[in-house]
Every structure is written in C-alpha cells, then in structure tokens.
C-alpha cells in the first residue's frame, strides 16, 4: 500500500510539473522593440538628404520574424535581418531626400513582425525643412498659402 501511495504522489508531482512547463510555453512570445522609435533630424534645408539607422531588438522569448519594412514616400530603406532569436538585435538604414519639401515634417515607417502584441511597430522621422540655401530663421509658407 505504501508503494502505491508513493507512486501516486510521484505521479501528481510529474503532472503538476508538466502543467507548469506547458503554461510557460503558452505565454512565450517574440517582442519587437526599438529603443529610439522617433528620430528628429533638427532643422536643415531642402537640399539635404537625411540618413539614419533604426535599431531593433527581440526582447521576447521566442523567435521574432520581421516580415516587412514599409518606408514613406521619397525614402529608401535597407532590409533588416528577418529572423531574430531572443535577445538578438538588428538594424536598418533609411535615406530620405528633402528635395521639394518645406516646413515641419513628420514621416512614418512601419515594421511588421510576428510580435502578437504589436504586429506593426511604427517609427517616426521628424524635423523642419527650410528653403534652399537657408540654415536657420523663419519658415516661409509654401507658394499659394498664407500664414
């Protein structure tokens, strides 16, 4: 009888251990993070080209798959590494031409992944574009618009 009681207690222990392991696996997920999701290029003139590197990290505990990076118009993006194991980092570059632009600017980029909490991670580029040849001062309104 005591052998049966010991076997039952061992079985209960094993079942509880299996449930705990299964629960931790169910909660496991990738997590895409960007330590600096907004880049402000400051104030520059419309002949400039902005270059920046966005850094990404998998802070989750499962493999992260980056499926796409969508850049705004007039921008070119390099491609980050597609698969990141937990703790791994990657980066991608963006090159943005300011030709023909004037005034305050805010452009969005979108990184799509298998992060269940944030399928799309928005990144932002902001700054102020002056008329060609100017490096500071008042921003002039676009032609046809008044302040």
**Which homologous superfamily in CATH is the superfamily of the largest domain?**
Immunoglobulins
The level-1 CATH class of the largest domain: Mainly Beta
Helix content: 10-25%
Q: How far apart are the termini?
A: 93 Å
Distinct helical segment count: 1
Oligomer: single chain
CATH fold type of the largest domain: Immunoglobulin-like
* Poorly predicted tracts of residues: 138-142
Shape call: rod-shaped
The number of E-state strands comes to 9
What structural category arises from helix and sheet content? alpha+beta
Q: Overall mean pLDDT score?
A: 83
String of helices and strands: HEEEEEEEEE
Report on the architecture of this protein:
There is one protein chain. With 147 residues, the protein is of the alpha+beta class. It folds into 2 domains: 30 residues; 99 residues, Immunoglobulin-like (Sandwich), CATH 2.60.40.10. The chain is built from 1 helix and 9 strands; from the N terminus they run αβββββββββ. It has a 5-stranded mixed beta sheet with strand order 2-9-8-4-6, with no helix packed on it. It is rod-shaped and about 85 Å long. About 3% of the residues have low confidence.
Produce a short descriptive summary:
This protein is of the alpha+beta class.
Supply the key terms:
four-stranded antiparallel β-sheet; rod-shaped; Immunoglobulin-like; single chain; alpha+beta; 147 residues
Question: Helix and strand layout, with pairings?
Answer:
Blueprint: H1 2-27, E1 32-33, E2 38-45, E3 49-58, E4 64-70, E5 75-77, E6 83-84, E7 89-97, E8 103-113, E9 120-130
Parallel strand pairs: 2-9
Antiparallel strand pairs: 1-3, 3-7, 4-6, 4-8, 5-7, 8-9
């Amino acid at each position: 009888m005591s052998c049966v009681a010991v076997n039952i207690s061992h079985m209960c222990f094993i079942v509880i251990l299996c449930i705990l392991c299964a629960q931790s696996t169910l909660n496991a997920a990738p997590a895409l993070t960007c330590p600096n999701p907004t880049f402000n290029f400051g104030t520059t003139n419309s002949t400039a080209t902005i270059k920046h590197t966005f850094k990404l990290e998998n802070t989750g505990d499962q493999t992260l798959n980056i499926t796409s990076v969508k850049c705004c118009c007039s921008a070119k993006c390099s491609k980050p590494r597609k698969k990141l194991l937990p703790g791994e980092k990657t980066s991608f570059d963006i090159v943005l031409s300011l030709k023909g632009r004037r005034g305050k600017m805010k452009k969005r980029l979108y990184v799509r992944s298998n992060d269940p909490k944030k399928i799309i991670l928005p990144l932002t580029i902001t700054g102020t574009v002056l008329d060609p040849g100017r490096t500071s001062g008042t921003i002039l309104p676009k032609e046809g618009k008044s302040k």
